[in-house]
Design goal:
The protein has 415 residues and is α+β, with helices and mostly antiparallel strands. It has helices at residues 2-9, 21-49, 53-71, 73-78, 88-96, 103-137, 144-147, 170-175, 210-229, 242-253, 259-265, 314-320, 382-386, and strands at residues 291-292, 308-309, 322-326, 337-341, 349-356, 362-366, 377-381, 402-408. The chain has 13 helices and eight strands. The model is unreliable at 1-26, 73-103 and 132-180 (pLDDT under 50).
């Protein structure tokens, strides 16, 4: 025994410790099992001699077999007994290292996971790239020249940066959506055949909806500014002076902007303003008569007695179709008008259209004929105009030739 303990303490391999502590444990365990089997044999012999021993012997043998299987499952399996089944999760845990997954299934599942992740990354990348390309091709990165359908270098850029416009609204504009947002036109209500401001404009023409007023401003500025950047040969023939530019832009802004309108005007615009919902020219009780040309407030009957016409000069426009806002030019909004009266000239009334406000504020106008020579359309920043070498053209309250900032009567407040 001392030699066996010494061998165990020496750390020698089990094979070199035959008869050591391990061997002693096995011998004693074997003796216990042998004694137990001997006792079972004696008990079986006694039972075999008792009455009904055959049946009891069979039952006893089956019970003994079950006990031996419980003590030694591997031996029972080799002897033909049904092995104890482990749950799939336990089998997977022992065999594959991943709970609930056998080695083959684990490899296949991981392969599918990798393909799924790859497809997800590729799909997301394609979506991002597609969005960037689409954004660039639908106007997000295009120059203002391309938005207006003008070749780069043929004209200066349009001054519409501060009047908005949304490409999302262009489809509705071209489709010619119903008037008045599904409502009846204002003139179907007898109460609108009045003149709340006494300025000669019937209330049924006033754009009382804020969205309609903004849409009109945007179209009015867009159309006027577009003419100034077109080659001279493409400018409509009717535009010959400042008043004709106002009339043209005003009339076209109030029309329905469908495919036919774009074809007739030759305009190519990438981002369109919204459509006016209240009414469209000439579909009103005034028909083609758009401008008030006679003095006095509107009364019933004016729609057909010549109080309105398609033509109005600069003086008539300022006196019958617009109202004074301020003589401070910085209070102007896009679409407002600047009027001058140059004393001593044969055509003393002059007008300009405000296209931008704030920093980079600008105006557009037509110079009109000068001693028989054709005029030209110009786009000028307000700061340049304020420093004009001829003081009579400076839009300052101290300049007696500057009449002030005016606004169209149809934009005149809420009723």
């Amino acid at each position: 025994m001392p030699s066996e303990i010494a061998a165990a303490q020496s750390g020698a391999p089990l094979e070199e410790r035959a008869g050591g502590v391990g061997g002693l444990y096995r011998d004693e365990r074997g003796r216990e099992l042998g004694n137990a089997r001997a006792a079972e044999g004696v008990r079986e012999a006694e039972l075999s001699n008792a009455p009904g021993s055959a049946e009891r012997t069979n039952d006893h043998e089956r019970a003994a077999e079950r006990r031996r299987a419980d003590r030694n499952p591997r031996g029972a399996a080799r002897a033909g007994a049904q092995p104890i089944r482990m749950a799939s999760g336990v089998q997977g845990g022992v065999a594959g290292g991943v709970p609930g997954m056998q080695p083959g299934r684990r490899a296949a599942s991981w392969g599918w996971m990798r393909w799924g992740l790859l497809l997800l990354v590729v799909g997301f990348t394609g979506w991002v790239v597609s969005g960037i390309i689409t954004h660039g091709w639908t106007g997000g990165w295009r120059s203002e020249e391309s938005l207006y359908g003008i070749e780069a270098g043929t004209a200066s850029k349009p001054a519409t940066g501060h009047v908005g416009g949304s490409a999302a609204k262009s489809a509705a504009a071209v489709s010619g959506a119903g008037d008045a947002h599904g409502k009846e036109p204002a003139w179907t209500n007898p109460a609108t055949w009045t003149d709340s401001f006494g300025d000669g404009t019937p209330d049924f023409l006033r754009l009382t909806d804020g969205g309609d007023r903004e849409a009109f401003r945007q179209w009015f500025v867009l159309i006027a500014d577009y003419q100034a950047m077109r080659p001279g040969s493409q400018v409509p023939a009717e535009i010959k002076d400042c008043a004709s530019l106002l009339r043209y832009a005003y009339r076209e802004a109030l029309k329905k902007h469908d495919a036919g309108w774009f074809k007739d005007t030759g305009m190519e615009v990438g981002a369109l303003p919204g459509e006016i919902g209240a009414w469209h020219y000439p579909d009103t009780p005034l028909a083609a008569g758009l401008f008030r040309i006679t003095p006095g407030p509107f009364v019933r009957g004016d729609e057909s007695d010549g109080a309105f016409a398609q033509f109005a000069d600069a003086k008539t426009l300022v006196e019958r179709n617009a109202y004074l806002v301020s003589r401070n030019v910085w209070q102007a909004e896009p679409g407002d008008l600047l009027f001058y009266r140059q004393f001593g000239e044969s055509s003393p009334w002059h007008s300009m259209i405000v296209t931008r406000v704030g920093s980079g504020a600008a105006v557009v106008y037509d110079t009109g004929q000068d001693h028989g020579a054709a005029g030209e359309l110009r786009r000028v920043e307000l700061t340049e105009l304020l420093g004009h070498p001829q003081a009579e053209w400076r839009p300052l309250a101290s300049n007696p030739n500057f009449m002030g900032v005016y606004r169209w009567n149809i934009l005149r407040g809420s009723l």
